[in-house]
Amino acid sequence: MTKQKVDDGSYTGAQIQVLEGLDPVRKRPGMYIGSTGYEGLHHLIKEIADNSIDEAIAGYATKVSVTILDDGGVRVEDNGRGIPIDKHPKTGKSTLETVLTILHAGGKFGGGGYKVSSGLHGVGSSVVNALSTHFFAEVVKDGELYKIEFERGVTKGELQKLGKTKRPQGTSITFYPDGTIFKESIEFDYKWVVNYLRHQAYLTKGIYVLVRDERTKQREAFYFEGGIQSYVKQLNIGKDVISDNIFYVERQVEDSMVEVAVQYNDTFVETVKPFANNVLTPDGGTHLVGFRSALTRVINEYARKSGLLKEKEDNLTGDDIREGLTAIILVKLPDPQFEGQTKNKLGNPEVRRYVEQVMNEYFSYYLEENPSVAKGIVGKALLAARARKAARAARDNVIRKGALDGLSLPGKLSDCSSKDPSESELYIVEGDSAGGSAKSGRDSRTQAILPLRGKVLNVERARLDRMLNNNEIVSLIKAMGVGISDQFDISGLRYHRIIIMTDADVDGSHISTLLLTFLFRYMQEVIDGGYVYLAKPPLFLLRQGTKKHYAYSDEERDDILAQLIAERKARGTVIDETADLNKQAGITLLQRYKGLGEMDAEQLWDTTMNPENRVLIQVKVEDAERSDAIFTKLMGDQVDLRKAFIQSRAKSLSIEDLDV
After folding, report:
1. Dihedral pair phi/psi, residue 524, rounded to 5°
2. Within a 13 Å sphere around the CA of 337, how many CA atoms are in the beta-carbon half?
3. Which of 219, 448, 544, 656 could form a disulfide with 416 if both were Cys (CB 3.0 to 4.6 A apart)?
4. Could you tell me where the beta strands, DSSP code E, fall in 242-315?
């Protein structure tokens, strides 16, 4: 990585500019951190850690650590220059206090403290300070330790000089989130922290990152000398790649840095992650537009020049070219223009030109110098183009038959009478027997039933043309109302709860996994919107006279039996611990359900469909990369990976392991 140092490495109060005050933060925290729920809470860590990462990007820090404390706080430390502690020329306070109490006071607004940055000292740090019950900042400079404390953004005493220390130079921030702001929870998720810091280690090659959790004594460390090349390699684990030779370029254009890594695999999906100053921009932006434009142009030009694309053939489309693509785009620029404080999209227009310029030149060189790789990439794109045309023909054929036009619903669908998606539910049910019970027992006003016959197609190894020849997939697309591929439109979703209801056995879990694979690969917006659920039917019926008890696991069954025995003991009944506990608990019938089809309509309603009693598991993508890896292992064609995954989890594996 090219070090982005300032000319002389100086970092003083004169470089800190003050723009406005801090008062609005506690009144409208969502404006600054996105929400006051789970994401907003963890955004606090991101804001502080980003500042430490910026020291590493600038070439001044080599180590960053984040510790979740056992008393509910978080400590972020780095061995960078340390936030300045000298008197600020404008505020008259220490610079450390200034950047932690005044919004938009920081070293990243043109004062020379940083050329590029992901965090914003004054914005991020002061926001976290305002939203914390307690906030402590410690700085080591020239062997001296300094400390200042705050409560809900208010300074508690002046900056203290605590004397000589052997601690390395740098900054340590400790904060405790305010429960009156984050009412949902103030408990940090270790997995989120690990995931975030792992990404930062990939994006800042050569930095050592340490994550610790004092609550559980867990710890993980990351160091990637290869940077984003290591990242691409990680994303492609378990996939057959066209070549081990990863395209990589890092070039400075004017005052910005462009870094790109590209490798193709044999899957049918695109995995491209764009970053600006180490911040993931999930909605893309100008850097992604420039990358895609250049990639399409360069590959088409090479295909024409090499004769792989015939004169009469149409150019390959961007979708054709990006099938099986894994890429990381990282741009570093002095004045990033993000959309909002949560930074989902990059808006700098000049960045498109920068990325296009670098890709046009260096990816062209790469293809010329690696003809076998280039041939593999173009060949895959040509296959994708033929499949796209076949898919269009299949889709047109299906549309002519009325299967995707939204005018006629699947014949097997028992729809609900409500047309309000917010109250409507679609139960995807395994088999006609369970489908019949579900139809009879449902609330027909809000609950629709779609029975599936057999196992749906494994779309992990199937393109769209093959999918549209599968009756079960077409019925599902049609029932949901969102379309598929370039016709996908989430606004057409007819049900805001898509509930997968299968038997609680291996076959049921397999069907659930097949459906989740389809939704994850082709309709992830439906999952991201929180619309997908797994129904959890009971395993046991315990009948005690006229009373019925349902148990959803072996442990729950045993707990119910123990409770019933305890109640009988309390009434004076003598219990023989060596005898049949079922009878002594007063159980006249203990039935284990082998499948949903064994339940009558009333039982299915009582246990699995009645909103007052049912247990639903909402499907969420907490870590898209881990989810992608799991689906690749379980549903791909590499048997050894799948075998190792199952063997390592043989004692505990369940469908919930896929609910990630």
Report:
1. -60, -25
2. 9
3. 448
4. 247-253, 256-264, 271-276, 279-280
What radius of gyration, in Å, describes the C-alpha atoms of the chain? 29
| Residue 615 CB coordination number (10 Å) | 14
Q: Are 427 and 501 in contact (CB under 8 A)?
A: yes
Residue 534, helix vs strand vs coil: strand
CATH class held by domain 228-392: alpha beta
Contact 9, 118 (CB under 8 A): no
CATH of 13-222 among 2.60.40.10, 3.30.70.660, 3.10.20.740, 3.30.565.10: 3.30.565.10
Helices (H), 370-412: 371-400
| Helix count and strand count (H, E) for the chain | 21, 22
Residue 443 designated active-site: no
Helix axes 624-635, 506-522, angle to 10 degrees: 130
Backbone angles phi, psi at 470, to 5 degrees: -100, 120
Residue among 556, 520, 518 nearest 537 (CA)? 556
How large a percentage of the chain has pLDDT more than 70? 86
| Dihedral sign from CA coordinates of 246, 252, 254, 255 | positive
CB neighbour class for 23 (10 Å; exposed up to 12, middle 13-18, buried from 19): exposed
Q: Which of 50, 259, 430, 606 is labelled catalytic? A: 430
pTM tops 0.70: yes
Q: Cβ(515)–Cβ(429) under 8 Å?
A: no
- Integer angstrom CA distances of residue 194 from 34, 202, 545: 21, 12, 52
**Taking a C-beta distance cutoff of 8 angstroms, is the pair 251, 258 a contact?**
yes
User: Hey, which residues does 128 pair with through a beta bridge?
Assistant: none
Asked if residue 381 lies in contact with residue 321, where contact means CB atoms within 8 angstroms, the answer is yes
Q: What pLDDT does 400 receive? A: 52
Query: Coil, strand or helix: which one is 218?
Result: strand
Would you give the DSSP letter of residue 137? Answer: E
For residue range 404-421, list pLDDT tens digits in order: 444 467 778 999 999 999
* CATH of region 401-537: 3.40.50.670
Answer yes or no: are the C-beta atoms of 240 and 270 closer than 8 Å.
Answer: no
Question: Which uninterrupted H or E stretch holds 548?
Answer: strand 547-551
Maximum mean pLDDT: which of 98-112, 243-257, 462-476: 243-257
The catalytic position among 505, 558, 559, 567 is 505
Annotated catalytic, 430? Answer: yes
- 55, 259, 356, 503: the catalytic one is 503
| Choice among 507, 554, 558, 622 that is catalytic | 507
